[in-house]
Design a protein that fits this description.
CATH superfamily of the largest domain: Glycogen Phosphorylase B
Distance between the termini: 12 Å
Largest sheet: 7 strands, parallel
CATH architecture of the largest domain: 3-Layer(aba) Sandwich
Oligomer: single chain
Strand order of the largest sheet: 3-2-1-4-5-6-7
Order of helices and strands: EHEHEHEHEHEHEHHEHEHEHEHEEHH
Radius of gyration: 20 Å
Structural class: alpha/beta
């Protein structure tokens, strides 16, 4: 039996992991343990551990290390505290796993992995090789890749880039496509009526789905960016229902949280949701006319729903994007003008990130490579 650990620190990585951990639970060759930390344990961010438990999974260990502040000092302190807490965790548990999964590029994920290095924990990294020049996550993603033994990427271009980064022609890198797209095939979405009953949001109305995270490289510009997006959303709310999902725990994230809350109080047509969960988020995406923001879901998943995306600013700069992604600056006039155009169009192209059955491909790779970890 292959003993697997899964590091999950946020609603974002958990939603992507979901088809993989479901497949591992069903396969008797795997012994799965979830290691839960980060915003999952934060009531400010919706305490999404509850969603994990609702899905039928139990946390093997819960590790609290996230500070509530969003200043550079708070993020750096949270990184240090996470590394300290995980140094204790790995001291007690590093022998318990054959492979530990780490997904993405969050600072707390990078800290958990960094603490594992002296213990030579075998890390399997999901989705290295990507680039997001407008976010410091770019540094964290590469650091996780450099600390990992197995690599699962979402496109051939990212596989080639990761070989360059690792400078190792023998690195175990596998192009499996995006796990989050497997959710679209396996996860039953809600009907409009079911969604309305659950969230009191009527998707029969013309709706724009908005997810904006801070730019963590040029973080001093976030105040101005927030003003521009709020001006745009205020204008668009005259003709559309605006559904906003709250940003991650990043530097300057509270600027957006406060502004979006105020916007929702001023306009009945603006709704703010802390955490939809994967099923409801994809349901809202399916029935919306358009997506606006700077989140990876707009880059990776929206094309599968034939949606256009207004991708704002530089947070996702450098990431491979399809023709459905319209790149714009944080400029209220350009956002409104483009929203009026693309909300009435349907994207007809393919999704660059799609491959069939990525979870089964990953399980096959694990079984074939497990002997190398003995």
């Amino acid at each position: 039996m292959i003993r697997i650990g899964v590091l999950t620190s946020s609603r974002a990585d958990y939603g992507i992991y979901l088809p993989l951990i479901q497949a591992m639970e069903k396969d008797q060759d795997f012994d799965l343990k979830l290691i839960v930390f980060g915003t999952h344990l934060s009531k400010l961010h919706g305490y999404t551990l509850a969603q994990i438990e609702l899905d039928g999974f139990k946390a093997f260990r819960k590790i609290e290390s996230l500070l509530l502040g969003d200043t550079p000092n708070a993020v750096a302190s949270s990184y240090a505290l996470t590394a300290l807490k995980f140094s204790e965790f790995w001291e007690e548990n590093y022998r318990e796993y054959d492979v530990v999964f780490a997904l993405g590029d969050r600072f707390e994920m990078a800290a958990a992995v960094a603490a594992s290095i002296p213990y030579q924990v075998k890390i399997a990294h999901l989705y290295g090789g990507e680039t997001t020049l407008g976010a410091i996550d770019n540094v964290y993603r590469h650091s996780i890749s450099l600390s990992s033994d197995l690599h699962f990427v979402s496109t051939g271009a990212f596989k080639a880039r990761l070989y360059q980064l690792l400078d190792d022609e023998h690195a175990k890198i596998f192009n499996v496509g995006s796990l989050s797209l497997e959710n679209l095939e396996t996860l039953p979405l809600l009907s409009i009526d079911e969604f309305q009953e659950k969230w009191r949001i009527d998707l029969y109305l013309d709706t724009i789905l908005v997810t904006v995270h801070p730019e963590t490289v040029a973080f001093k510009l976030n105040e101005q960016y927030c003003i521009e997006i709020c001006l745009a959303l205020e204008q668009l709310s005259a003709n559309y229902q605006i559904v906003i999902t709250m940003p991650n725990a990043d530097t300057a994230g509270l600027i957006y949280r406060v502004a979006f809350e105020e916007l929702s109080k001023m306009h009945n047509n603006v709704r703010v949701i802390e955490n939809f969960g994967t099923q409801s988020y994809f349901t809202c995406m399916k029935y919306s006319k358009l997506m606006i923001g700077n989140t990876s879901s707009g880059i990776v998943e929206a094309a599968s729903f034939q949606k256009y995306v207004l991708n704002l600013g530089d947070r996702q700069k450098g990431r491979l994007a399809g023709e459905n992604v319209i790149h714009l600056p944080f400029d209220s006039e350009e956002i409104v003008k483009s929203a009026l155009i693309y909300s009435n169009k349907q994207f007809e192209g393919k999704n660059l990130y799609y491959q069939p059955n990525p979870s089964q491909t990953i399980l096959k790779v694990l079984k074939e490579n497990y002997a190398n970890f003995s």
